[in-house]
Amino acid sequence: MTIYKDLEGKKVVITGGASGIGLATAKRFVDEGAKVVILDWNQEELEKTLSIIPELKSGVFADVSNPDEVKSAFKKIDEILGGIDILISNAGICFRSPFLKIDYEQWSKVLRVNLDGMFLCSKEAIIRMKKQRSGVVLLMASTNGIEGHPLYADYNSSKAGVILLAKSLALEFAPWLRVNAVCPGYVLTPMQKAEYTPEMLEIVNSKIPLKRHAEPEEVAALFAFLASSEAAFITGQAIAIDGGETAGLYTPMEE
Predict the structure, then answer these.
(1) Does residue 186 have an active-site annotation?
(2) What is the rounded average pLDDT for all residues in the chain?
């Protein structure tokens, strides 16, 4: 399935790589011939993923919000890959809570994983990329970081921070490093299927111009493109993949 020849042999690290979009992305980069290590905080899912995708170089256990665990994980990655060309910082969490029901513990947890985790993993990756004066960092943001959504104040805030982190890093480390934020809208992951009833999914789909959720593989395809030389002039961007959700007010028109 190789599409981007220059991804073959690239050393790729994917956080949150044992499920959802991360898993689909790991599969895609393996198909592209890359050397892939996934990082995740769910040991059971890690082992399951390694059995599903035997072509993976390895899976490393770590909580991306823990500085010591991240440092240790990247030292293991050094031993496995001997460097890193591409970081896909995908790990994140989300809770659906009214603002006044969000306690500080939940707020802090969401920010630690979704934003601190991006900082910690990006820093470790860029330290290594700087030695070779090349690399690509792709951060998982969200359309929730572009516009407001009720019931997700903590998540929205974290993803807005991720977008500005990507833009800041892109400017600071140009021209040898490219950094972009990927901003999915609704994606039909196992988590989404578990949280939403078919009726709820139908209501959401009716408000999306393309009338459906994205598939995880479609987001993985965007990651592959942005990591490749085909995207060599794209950096510092927040790129939405949302079926037109953030294009403006959607009012179905009669043909």
Answers:
(1) no
(2) 96
